[in-house]
Structures are given as C-alpha cells and as structure tokens.
Amino acid sequence: MTAPSEPDWFKTSYSGGSGTECVECAYSADGTLIRDSKRAEGPVVHVRAGAWGAFVRSLTRDVPR
C-alpha cells in the first residue's frame, strides 16, 4: 500500500482581497477538503463529493432578495 500524497491546496477565487478571509480547498478521492490558509496546520473540513456538488450548484441559483 502506498502512502497518500499531500493534498494540492489552492486559494478559492472568492477569498477576500484584504488577506483576512483566506480559504483554501483541495480535492480528495471522495470529496473536497477545506481549511483556513492562515492556519494550515489547523483543522480541515472534509465534504463528500455529493454534498460539495449540491453546495456549489446552490450558489449559482437565482435567489430572490
């Protein structure tokens, strides 16, 4: 069995420009990993692929205001 490789983290396109709201994501075999880039050693949230897809699709829907 081979050891898992390190995730390929990237800053999300919607992270704030002020440097205070930096979110990084990485894709895993079965979903997406999310972390605070200022605390890379901190906790990581794992979201399964189906839930992540539903979340992303919900962001593109027209929502009445």
How would you characterize the overall build of this protein?
The chain is an alpha+beta fold. It has a domain at 21-60. The protein is built from 1 helix and 4 strands; from the N terminus they run ββββα. The protein has a 4-stranded antiparallel beta sheet. A hairpin with an 8-residue loop joins β3 (31-36) and β4. It is flat.
Please give a handful of descriptors for the protein shown.
alpha+beta; 28% strand; 65 residues; 1 helix; 4-stranded antiparallel β-sheet
Write the layout of secondary structure elements.
Elements: E1 10-11, E2 23-28, E3 31-36, E4 45-48, H1 49-60
- Overall pLDDT confidence: 82
How does the overall form come out from the CA principal axes?
flat
Instruction: Report the major sheet.
Output: 4 strands, antiparallel
Helix content: 10-25%
Quantity of strands, as a count: 4
Task: Please provide the ordered H/E string of secondary-structure elements.
Answer: EEEEH
Give the amount of beta strand, in percent.
25-35%
The poorly predicted ranges are none
- What is the straight-line distance between the termini? 52 Å
Structural class: alpha+beta
Provide a quick synopsis of the model.
This protein has about 60 residues and is α+β, with helices and mostly antiparallel strands. It has one helix at about 50-60, and strands at about 10, 25-30, 30-35, 45-50.
